[in-house]
């Protein structure tokens, strides 16, 4: 599954970066668990958490779609949409209060990736079951 592996490898440094930003926020605000009522830390936690909530599921769909013979064009459409969506979403939550339009664009692209990949899985699975 080279296409799924490519996107997983590309997204891993993003996860590491978001994780390290959250850890740095916890250290600087001296908060071991939760956000300690600190808005900056809460934003870092949610930026990381949102990435972790959507990215693994999308990568599983990408790998499954690839395993059932989905065309590389469809796989890359889903993968590029996922990467762009996750990067936009994380960027949109960087300034205090976030940038709503960019955040929405990031979520729309992430949902598009999930939809593309879910449909690809259905089509591929249906073809292999028949």
Feature tags:
130 residues, mainly alpha, Four Helix Bundle (Hemerythrin (Met), subunit A), 0% strand
Describe the structure in your own words:
- The chain is elongated.
- The mean pLDDT is 95.
- With 130 residues, the chain is mainly alpha-helical.
- 30% of the residues are buried.
- The chain has one domain (2-129): Four Helix Bundle (Hemerythrin (Met), subunit A).
- 83% of the residues lie in helices and 0% in strands.
- The longest helix is centred in the last third of the chain and has 30 residues, at 100-129.
Tally of helical segments: 4
- Named at the architecture level, the CATH assignment is Up-down Bundle
Give the overall average pLDDT.
95
The counted number of beta strands is 0
What does the oligomeric state look like here?
single chain
CATH superfamily: Membrane associated eicosanoid/glutathione metabolism-like domain
Q: What's the domain count?
A: 1
Helical residues, percent: over 70%
- Using only C-alpha atoms, the radius of gyration works out to 17 Å
Name of the CATH class: Mainly Alpha
What share of the residues does DSSP label as strand, in percent? under 5%
**Largest beta-sheet characterization:** none
Characterize the overall form: elongated
CATH T-level fold name: Four Helix Bundle (Hemerythrin (Met), subunit A)
Q: For the record, give the distance between the C-alpha atoms at the N and C termini, rounded to a whole number.
A: 23 Å
Encode the helix/strand succession as letters: HHHH
Specify the structural class: mainly alpha
List the uncertain runs: none
């Amino acid at each position: 599954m080279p296409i799924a592996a490519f996107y997983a490898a590309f997204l891993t440094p993003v996860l590491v970066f978001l994780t390290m930003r959250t850890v740095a926020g916890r250290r600087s605000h001296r908060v071991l668990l939760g956000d300690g009522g600190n808005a900056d830390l809460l934003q870092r936690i949610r930026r990381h958490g949102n990435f972790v909530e959507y990215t693994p599921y999308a990568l599983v769909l990408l790998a499954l779609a690839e395993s059932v013979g989905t065309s590389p064009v469809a796989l890359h459409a889903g993968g590029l949409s996922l990467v762009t969506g996750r990067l936009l979403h994380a960027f949109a939550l960087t300034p205090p209060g976030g940038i709503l339009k960019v955040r929405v664009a990031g979520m729309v692209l992430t949902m598009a990736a999930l939809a593309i990949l879910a449909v690809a899985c259905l089509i591929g699975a249906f073809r292999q079951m028949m």
